[in-house]
Structures are given as structure tokens and as C-alpha cells.
Amino acid sequence: MKRAKTAVALGIFDGVHLGHQAVLKLAAEQLKNGLAPCAVTFSPGIVSLKKCGSGFIFGESEKMRLLKKYGISNIRSFEFNDIRDMDGEKFAGKILAEEMNASFVCCGNDFRFGKNAACGVRELRKFGEKFGFSVCAAADVSYDGETVSSTKIRRALLNGDVSAAGSLLGRSYSVAGQVVHGARLGRTIGFPTVNQLFEKGQLVPKYGVYASQVVIDGKLYGAMTDIGVKPTVDYGGCPLAETNIFDFRGDLYGTEIVTEILDFIRPEMKFGSVEELTKQLRSDEKKIRGIT
After folding, report:
1. What is the pTM of this model?
2. Spatial distance between the Cα atoms of 86 and 75, rounded to a whole number of angstroms
3. H helices within 8-120, ranges in order?
């Protein structure tokens, strides 16, 4: 059976932000020319290896969900160690031409590939001529006069500026993943929560309380999310997102949910007692209900 020719979006796609979406759109548009939109990307760990410091924005499963949302039907994700010693020509020939059967390849202007990141768009075009695929580099995307980048999004999240991060992402920043069991203290003080862990190496936004929202069975619920380590109760574990969903009753343990983080309310604080914590949570809820 003859294999379908493809249009390949090429990139790390950490965050799948507005700039990445421009690249994905170039591939998705090739469907009208009979090419299947695909992506070649790399596991989130490559971000840490590039010494970005604060970690990757989204984990692998959430990145896959977002790539599909923007029109990509087939995704090939590589572990960095599997390709780190592959030179640019071999990558273009073996991965793009042979494995992906690419007829069209697109990427950002600053995309680098091959051993020691030795190759860029110019080399990719040269390899395309040899292996039979055309190459298109997406123009940089600007927001408020600045080029959109994952670095700017990381900086915004570390400052708690989820609104700015959302503008660069083209959608609200979100915490996605399975709901896991916690200490269940929230239930005893009238604030039951769902808990989501950040992946190892993933960026954790500024610790604090945020206005948020969650869609469950097609219904939108307002919520408040604490991101941090729960200092009042000596939690002692890894940072997590702990969300109290307003007016919802139900068991979500083990299910996958997406918590959209909308606005920073206050920094995480250590209170003198659980009673003081409860009083502050009531105040936080009142404030958030007034703005969501």
C-alpha cells in the first residue's frame, strides 16, 4: 500500500504558544494539498537539558493533547538521548524523509537540529532538496511589540502573571493531569480539593492562590487553586496544584482534568493555625467568586 505523504511541523513546542501555533497552522493547511499534518517533536526533558532553568511548561500528555487540538493528526516524539548524536543530514533523511515520508516541513526561524544543534533553516532547506521535501519557516509572532517565546511565558509564570502567560499562549495557562489523593485536610475544614502533581522537571508557577476554573462533564465550574507546598500543615511533599471546585460534589480521583489558572490572588502563606487558614480561605473564595 502506498504511504501517504505528510506535512511535518518540526519543533520542541514547549507550551504550544502563539508562535508554535503559527508553525502548526502551516502544516495543518497542507491537508488541502493532500498531505497528512504531522509533528516531529521531542520529550519535555530536552528543555531541562537546554538549561532553561525553570523547566518545561507542559508535560508530554498535555503537549500531545494541544498539538492535536491545533490540527495535527500524527505525532512522533523523540527522547533527546535517542537522537543527540545524529547529524542534521541523517535526521533529515532517516526521520523526516524515510520515517515520516515528508513532502513539506515547517519550523520556526530559530529552530536548531542535528548534533550539537549545528543545523538551522538554511541547512534544512539544503537537505530538503536532497531528500524531496520543501521547507517553510514561520514568521515570528509578536504580542505587544515583543516576540512570543517560551522564555517569556516561563518568566511570567514564575512571577505569578498568569494573565500575561495566557496572552502569549493564546489560551489560559492550565494544569493538566490525573487527580491524585492528598491528605484530605480540606474536607475537614469545608474546602474539599482535587490534587494534581507537577511532573519532574516541569515549571511550577509562583506559589500562591489563584482564581481558576474547571470543566467537568461539559459544565464550567469556578474554582480556586493553591499552587505550592502547603506550609501551614507541614505537607513536606513536592509542589502540587490543589483546587477547590465551587458548587461541585463528586469523586474525581483517578480522572484526568484540566484546571485553567486565571488570576493570581495572593502568595502562599504559613498561618499560625488551621483556623486562621480556614478564615483566609473563606476570604479568598469570596474574592474569587466576585471576579469569575
Report:
1. 0.90
2. 20
3. 18-28, 45-49, 60-69, 80-83, 88-90
